[in-house]
Structures
1.
Amino acid sequence: MNFLTRLKILPRWIIATLDSLILFHCALFGYLVRFNFELALIEQYDAIAGSFTFMVGGLLVMQNTRSYEGIVRHTGFRDGSNIFRTVLVNFVLFLFLNFFHGNFLNDRFLLPTSVLIIASLSSLFMLIFYRLLVKELFVYLKNGILVKELKNGVIFGAGEAGIIAQEAIKRDSKILFNTVAFLDDDPKKEGKNIDGKRIYKGIGDLEKLSKQFGVTELIIAVRDLSVLRKNEIIDECLRLNISVSLVPPVDQWINGGLTAGAIREVKIEDLLSREQIKLDNPRIHEDLQGKVILVTGAAGSIGSELCRQISHYGPKLLILFDIAESALYDIEQEFKENYMYCPIKIVLGDIRNKKKIKEVFRAYKPQVVFHAAAYKHVPMMENYPEEAIQSNVLGTKILADISVLAKVDKFVFVSTDKAVNPTNVMGASKRAAEMYVQALNEYLERNHKSYHTKFITTRFGNVLGSNGSVIPLFKKQILHGGPITVTHPDITRYFMTIPEACQLVLEAGIMGEGGEIYVFDMGEPIKILDLANKMIQLSGKKVDEDVKIVFSGLREGEKLFEELLNDFETVKITHHPKIKIAQVLPSSYHKIDGQIELFMELIHKNSENELVSHLKVIVPEFISNSSRFEVLDRMN
């Protein structure tokens, strides 16, 4: 038994030997049946020699069909068809030999035709049967004897994906999963069986199964399951302390076949309260192909994903511009390894450095600019308002002005929902930048009607998994045993994934005719406390027992609820239901230009209060919250 536990795959010579013995004994069995077990007749027809000949012929055929090379415990339809082909060829071969032997050598047949038929049919049955027997033996050893700590689980989805998942689990001896039942929303499948396991309707019986079989695992194996239904299943599993895993989409494994290792645990990204936003606009390819494209902040979460997506559209040259040396080096290595087909230029620099920006535009002549470089951490920028203004406001102005002089076709500015009714310096600085590029676009439209750079702004919320976002922070805190710090029990945020954000930026950039501020429908806002609770449970821990949640209080400049529009903005629909245009009255270009230039004088004064106070003049709706700058609001 210990030998069997260590034996993962039967060697080929063992399979070939077993196949040979089966062929020999099936031929011998054919003689016994044909001659009614009369030994005298059997000896007369030299059954031993005939059986040996049948075995040798079968082995020669196997050398061509390679039927002994399959992994027995993974036997499937293809292996069965290969064995059938082996037996059929062997049968036809002996029919020919019998004909030749009997008619040209004037001798009796090598094997009587009736014996040949019986031997072929019985060998086909036995060759397949023993493989299936060995396959089930491995499963039995895995489930019944070898594994003491097997986890009982259910598979949600009794369709093709569920059946394939069950087969993948059975094949992999390392997966400690014992399927006790299937669940499915289709009422027609209720009460039926798959692989001896009963199918139950929906998740209503999950609690009963949990108590009856001690279910601790659930695998979701449904191809097109809505996010709402998936969340319902996951919520019920979390309530019952059942771990949840997902079978990946079919297109990720169909060519190579599903392996148990591909079944992954649920990620927090899977729990977005809406369907994933997917775009496939052929105009993006038309607009970007063959062009020189500059991406600032190219080493950041959004910038790097933008570069990855842009690379698929065949740009003439992709310029990756960033101030972060290590991160820029990492993205350069990634492109050299995975995106060799896309010509790139790595530029280490600061968008606040006018000389450097001019050099880049003079040397490479970019036609499209995606401006994702920014300081974005709210508490940090509240402590260093000068840095926020220099980077987010003055840096954007420098880049925008030089883009106009260089006759760039389009300038896409990546903004944030924190720019709406801002309560912090970071959000207000992004709003000031929005105002400048919009005013600049309006000025160019009025005074340079024949040709001018088109400025487009995109505004979205928190990005799941981006640098500094709450998800990586919570994961790190859970890994260290907690506590998880949530600033306020009622705080909510809009979320989207990094690929979603970048798809929408590209889409808006193509749709934009200049001057628009695009806002994205991100569904309902998510409560951060609920997010923390689910992340703890998904990690296999219990809230307040294994990992505690503590409330640290709102940080400087932080607000409870983010907004996509301020009180004076309305939206206009577009061709895409998830993308809308904020209707905002543009500022006077000369006024906003002068106000931003004034920052240069105020920076030299080295007075934070004067800088922030002037920012509040530019952005009148900027009201500080939980910040030392609240005093400035009381002075106005």
2.
Amino acid sequence: MEPTLLQSEAEVEMLIDSINYMWILVATFLIFFMHAGFAMLEAGQVRSKNVANQLTKNLLTWSVGVTVFFLIGVGVEGVVAGDGFVPAFQGDAAGWLDWLYGAVFAMTAATIVSGAVAGRAKLRAYVSYTFLLAAVIYPVVTGLTWAGEHLAYGDVLFHDFAGGMIVHGMGGIAGLTAAWVLGPRMDRYNSDGSANVIPGHSLTFAVLGTLILAFGWYGFNVGTSAIIGEGAFLGDQLGRVALTTTAAMACGAMGAGLVAWLKTGKVDTLYVANGLLAGLAAITAIPDTTAWWGAFVVGGLAGVQLPLVFEFVEQYLKIDDVCAVFPVHGSAGVLGTLLFPFVAAPGVVDSIVNAFVAQVIGVVVIAAWTIVATGVIWYAFKATGQARVSPEHERDGLDVSEHGVDTYPEFGQPDVATDGGSDEVIRADGGEPNDGEIKMVTAIVRPDRLGAIKQSLAEAGAPSLTVTNVSGRGSQPAKKGQWRGEEYTVDLHQKVKIECVVADIPAGEVVDAIREGAETGEPGDGKIFVMPVESATQIRTGKTGRDAV
């Protein structure tokens, strides 16, 4: 039997829906992968003692957030939109695709906050805030905008294509608000109000995270476009979104790097990376409508404003935004959203004034709701003593205090596993090592030489040692460092202290072994000290003197 025209149309419509849903799922997976980028970006910008805490927050943001958004958030969004409380689990399986697509956007907004409060927020406070953001704060925003279309001026709707303000602007503003309530990290500001630079521990992680985020951002922007709409292939829109996203990204990096160079005479790596993301955040609201030249303007301005806004937040507002989430996501998202009518392609906007007013209304409403809701929640945490870790825990690092782990347990690489020394040493001269005394050999050396030193000591028959991570200064000159465009002086250098107590092994041989492993020929190789030990006691056996060693 030949298929009827109606059957053919139904089959075509089913095919179109299948292709579009597969496209949306691929975009969803790309956006999910952005969490790997956020994890690396934030981990690189915090101190080494807080890395595991930052990684855990990113894992729990996703885990807690998507669950709450499924059970509660979708329903709250429906109420605000005017459709009533219908949680995702009451819908059909096909509708769960829409839930998942919405969830990855919601969790992007949530995880932005973790970078602002890094290094001092209690894990329980952050997770509780994530719960409330996924359940109420973010769904109210999407209910007013994408789902309900309540924000408008006259007959002009507030325009946000992929979340420049709804996701990134909101997340950046929420992060700034939480950081303001929480207060700065210890030692971030001096008593006179001047700021101290606290560098993150890995630019490598930060740049890797940046590039992962940029890759996933194509899912954010380009993925928001369907492939086929109303029987037509949407190649024009896809091409525009792909171009404007890429151009804004590139110009954001160049704009931030240029301003950093003009301010300091150096092109700051972290500013370039952050500027790339700021360009992406700025274009996210308007990639479907922006002229090609407008993408250059939006991205460039987003990059230029980044160092200026960060300096304003740090120096004048005295807010410790650790990962610069406000200038990267907040102010950049606001900027791009407000530029909508001024950089639109011909024929997109009928009235620049009406369109701009609609954008201002959207930005003000979203910002006001985010500030009030976030401020109330974090003030409640603060009032009950649940917002911030104790000074002792903050000083020790959140990895140990909140998770009981050490992200970097080894000081040097490669690791050299050595067994105990020989039980008996036969000396050719018939004498007694160290003139019968116990000696303590202490060395202050470069951390990267520890592996070679351990090998040398093992070969010398003196494998037992104690290693401590220390910092200090000697003949090695101070050096200048730069973190996000600000210069700081490093006069206490990271070193490793090695202590080796010997009795049957001559101290001179231990000194030679350490020197052989530690020497690079450059200032800062360290020093070795030999001191007598009055006595020693082995705890397990009670042996004393040389027998204990």
3.
Amino acid sequence: MHHLDLRRLILLLTIATTLLTFANSFHASYQTLHRQLIAQTLEANRAYAAKLAHSTDAFLKAAQQQLAYSAALLPERLGQTERLDAEVARLKAQTGTFNGVFVVGADGRVQAAAPWGVGLVGSVLQAEGARRALAAREPLISTPYVGLRGHLLVFLSQPIFAPDGRYLGYVGGAIHLGQSDGSLQALLGNHYYQDGSQLYVVDGNRHLLHHQEPSRIGEIVTGNPAVEAVLQGEEGSRRVLDGTGIDMLAGYAPVAGTGWGVVAQRPSAATLAALDGLMLEILLAALPFFIPMLAALWWLSKLIVRPLRQLAITARYWEFASAREQIRRVRAWYFEAEQLKLAMLDGLALLHGKLGRLNQENITDPLTRLTNRRGLQLALERWQAQRRPFAVIAVDIDHFKQVNDSYGHDIGDRVLQHVSRLLGCISRSSDLVCRGGGEEFTLLLPETSLEGAMQVAERLRGLISHARSPTGSFVTVSAGVAHWPGSAASVAAVLRLADEALYQAKRGGRNRAVMAGQTEVGSEDVPVG
């Protein structure tokens, strides 16, 4: 039976190992990037849908506020044609929100209208939204319906009451949906994507209220899990098949005040098209280097049997910590083997360096560059194993939700970074500063007593409360302090005690620090922005 000689065997083994390693790395890279692209697109679509849902809800609330302001002025103007005409004209022109504005008396007859006043004054509106507004006698946003002029619209109204409580009628405004002259259309935008992406709005009856294809306005959407989920009030993302069977990455969010839903979706194929092209470029770029290497191995294999065998075997175990030392021990007594040995050492060092950076990224919060919850847990496990005592300071920004609501999430993120920098200023090089999530931070102070940590917490609180934040004013923090093993034998219990002390500080008025087991700690008043 014919046997392969050692030179050919080593060559075949090297070729097979190289190909398998390359294929495995190529496949793993593809799968990782594939998952990342899908997850990023889903999250981007969810965030986009949530933003538009919030904007739509805010738009409708602002429209209701305009009508409410007008309703408060109208009781004394009813029956005064010129003043009513001036008011509806003002409402129509003020912000361009409404396509039509009406003042209707308690008998259902139009007393003033813009822009169709001449033809409507004195008549009774028969549209569905108008009839519902007259009967409701309360603020109303109607379900979308087709108006008398053939427009799909939504009708907003505010009741008018006399000072003695008598119902006098209502002031209402019509907003066109899916029309180029509609203010809501201008808010949502056209979004004419070239890759098959879609943005649409559905009402509680699954009718399309907005779509980049105007011909589909009013169409009923069925069989779409994203639509079903958003009409149940859910916000999220998922992979779905649209009505034509196209695989879509959909993000969705409900419009709080109306029962509508906003869905943003992009074809999976469009998301992954760039990945396919990138992987092909990587493959083509690798081939010119791979083929000459095989030719060189073919001619040199007889001369490099021993060192190549050692290097090939070692290369199969790169994941072990001893791999680098094993490569160093190979006696490469000729130039080519020495270069291969050095290349493997460089590659291994590069790989370990990348893995080290990846591990560092895994324990770092991307916004504040502080240690994240995973890194916090690793430090706690290490210090506990070393029996190294430490103090814990749990910190939370006071009224942070108001910062986000008043100034937006971009300013909120800058406030988080502002507080993070101050935490770094107050801490020592041996301390660990972590962001647990949201506006919550944790400081671990090794070899620090409970009283010493309390002093640090008070210095931190004072520093933050007197440093002007990105909002232009001041923010404050509350803190809870505990110690391991002084406060409890269990690390988990110590963290829980620090949180409980933090919440006690919150309940006690905020802008204060509370020590675990302490009932009350005062603080000076600080202006809060």
4.
Amino acid sequence: MIQYILECIAFQLVFLVIYDFFLKRETFFQWNRFYLLSTFLLSLVLPFIKIEAFKTTVEQPYIEYGEELWGVNNALVVGVQEPTGIDISWQMVLFVSGALVATLLLVYKLRQLYLLSTKGDRISFKEFTQILIPNSNMAFSFFKSIFIGDKVSKRDYTNIIAHELVHIKQGHSWDLLFFELMRIVGWFNPLVYVYQNRISELHEFIADAKVAKRDKNEQYQLLLSQVFQTQNISFINHFFKSSLIKKRIVMLQKSQSKSVFKLKYLALVPLVLGMLFYTSCENDNKDDAIDNDNVITVSSVDDLSEEEETMVYTRLKSLASSEEAWSLKVKDSENSLKFESTKDNVFVSGINNEPIRAKMTIDNNGSPKYFKNFSPSAGEPYDWKKIYREENLVPFSYVDKVPVFPGCEGEADVRACFQQNIQKHISKHFKYPEEAQRQGIQGRVSIMFTIDEDGSIVDIRKRGPHELLENEAVRIIEKLPRMTPGSYEGKIVKVPFSIPISFRLEQAGFNPFSVDANYVQMQQEQIAKLSTEAQMAYGNSVAFRNVDNPPVFPGCENADDILDCFKKSMYRHISKNFRYPENAQERGVQGRVSVIFLMDTSGNITHISTRGPDESLEKEARRIIAKLPQMIPGRHNGKQVNVPYAIPITFRLR
């Protein structure tokens, strides 16, 4: 978002510079009006436009880290969770506060107009409504209303009305109101105010030029002889405004610009093309800079089928015969390996879970020597001390004094406290992306960041199965507080730290394929503990898998497969409403909670029973199920019946 705002402001600045230096003094007032409105709108949409023909890659500096830095044994498993409180950044508070102030100012200005309209005498004409203000010499228009003071001389009245009618007919108030609204959403952007000022000037030039066609000298004398005061409202068309009188007189005296000068507007074409070229540039991500044609998806990187191994081997051999550098990515749902060649050698590196530093050579037949199952028999040792000397960077496991997480200053084991607080931070701020839930995306994201010499979090890197999960991991890490920096050999150093985060939908919900699988066992053990009323209700029920027409989840009425839609809707409901109890997190409690409930003959959710390792987890499971909507009841033998349903919900911290 910040990058978008900066790009918009930069584009607006360039457009305004072009206007002020090349177009402002020309008498093409309508062209200039179109220029200001269109370039402002262009500045808002250009950052979103990516043109394939202009796309290029901008290389970014990259530091190759060794396997030790990725901390593959510190995996944290997280599931769908609701935040435990309102999570609002200070930037959002500042933005909303400024927008609120700007909105209140707009309301205040509208109230001023309203009070003026109620104060004056209203006279309706065919093209406008005149509001005569007592004891005043003001003159301005707002949409189809012309506010004019009763002290304005009759000699000037005709020209003033003609002038304001130009504003009304051309809809100038819409321009000013548009920029007034832009001042609310972009109150922090000074160029919005500049744009509004420029468009306000143009409105006066346009109206003066129209009226001057009838009697230029009279209009000129009117401006020269009188300077009246009017209300200080930024989005009305003033007739007399001291700061504009001189400019309006100058523009009235100017000769009409030659038509050939309209060619100046053509400068906008290369300018916009340059901006499009800039917005189409992409940062070079070393992990992703592989042609899609050179990506092979397999069932498992660690255990290839014979067919998959042949396919990958054939592709590698084909690439190896080329004299040019090449890349090939082989990936499954969670893991990925990248092969790169510089003609003579092939380098293999893991991209997701367990990065590998290895080199493979090409034999005389052009085939990779150490290819079998991607397990190279020769590797290059990782020299972290070399990186320390060159980059002042020491791995977390080798640093003398690890960075100190705020609150761990007095702990005996600062290293363990650091890791515990990192995990608590991730659990607290974690939000499973809704789009990833809808698409069923899960997997492991390896996230690495560096704690800089001043304790700030920099150089965040991510490697995962999907951009949605990667972005969520980065968002969490960006919220980390400033640390006390680490040191090595008495010197403050940069310390990289990594923590793979496994996104598991079933950890916070359930496996759709196992729903109702343990119903019989739960029915025997749990129903016996229920009240007599509940036992009777369950006794008069028909098992979900045996009912002729199962209950219908709201929204699944027209689904092709109602049963599948029911399971998926149940899954989404649990994922959306899940919240890991804080008390259970602090005590490290986790495990599976078996839940059974009844959908009665009215479709209501009743008789919820749970069995789990801890009361707090059972309570959370009951809360989620109690929020289920009313179903369309199930039917058996043509009658509405009670239908029980069982769901195992797994709570897991790691």
